[in-house]
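Hey, quick one: can you model this chain's 3D structure?
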Amino acid sequence: MQTMDAALADLARRGLITRELAEARAGSPEELRRLMGTVRVA
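Sure thing. Here's the predicted structure for all 42 residues.
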């Protein structure tokens, strides 16, 4: 079983949804970015 954020990260990596949509739907956008290997610098 995987978390919703992990599932969203997988879909975004595979190009099935946009990164923006994944971040909008994620419970924790920061965790989603970590899972995708990207970190935003403010």
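One thing worth noting: The chain has one domain: 4-36.
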